[in-house]
Amino acid sequence: xxxxxxxxxxxxxxxxxxxxxxxxxxxxxxxxxxxxxxxxxxxxxxxxxxxxxxxxxxxxxxxxxxxxxxxxxxxxxxxxxxxxxxxxxxxxxxxxxxxxxxxxxxxxxxxxxxxxxxxxxxxxxxxxxxxxxxxxxxxxxxxxxxxxxxxxxxxxxxxxxxxxxxxxxxxxxxxxxxxxxxxxxxxxxxxxxxxxxxxxxxxxxxxxxxxxxxxxxxxxxxxxxxxxxxxxxxxxxxxxxxxxxxxxxxxxxxxxxxxxxxxxxxxxxxxx
Length: 272
Fold this sequence. Notes:
This protein is α+β, with helices and mostly antiparallel strands. The chain is built from five helices and twelve strands. Helix 1 crosses helix 3, helix 1 packs across helix 4 and helix 3 packs across helix 4.
């Protein structure tokens, strides 16, 4: 596909989302889209603004919401990658609930990134961004191929039992879940099993072994050690990061709650 002559341009009004992909463009091109329009810029020196004031930005967002700043933020190309700066008052929320606060900036990774400016709990403004990555050739038809499993972090039976108890609030899809304390985990395991007695010290040891193993793996999981720069409370943050890694790799699933005595609907889903 020829992309020669690609220049900064408004996106066609027919483009409703970037989630399904973007038109042909050189690697490094940024596409940004809000509810009221969008813009695309190839990798070059440029300041791509977004915010409430249609006359002062390339991508209008939250045009009828005076909690959104007139120029809420800007994308800039530094010669290698695009960076976003928050020039508004409200935070910009990234996937994983990461917040870009007023005055902060961060890089935008290649691919699709949805972000939100929330003026209230029930009024999020979506800003979609897609940075074109390096083309690797023609895509192959993957719709009928076998599903590739996520990268695995194998667990022993004891490790899986302890971590299921630790992560049960996540597995039950509670709002704003947090890991249980060592004492809570031990009490839940003792009440759901007659096979052995668990102590907070044993629970802490088992979880620590798993954190250390994953942090030292060939493809290490970050955020599992104090040395990774985790803030207080350290233990809670380390366990949260561990649980997230195990959920993302599908090594912990809601079905594991059966080990704690939960009764789940027997409707297994087979992935092929």
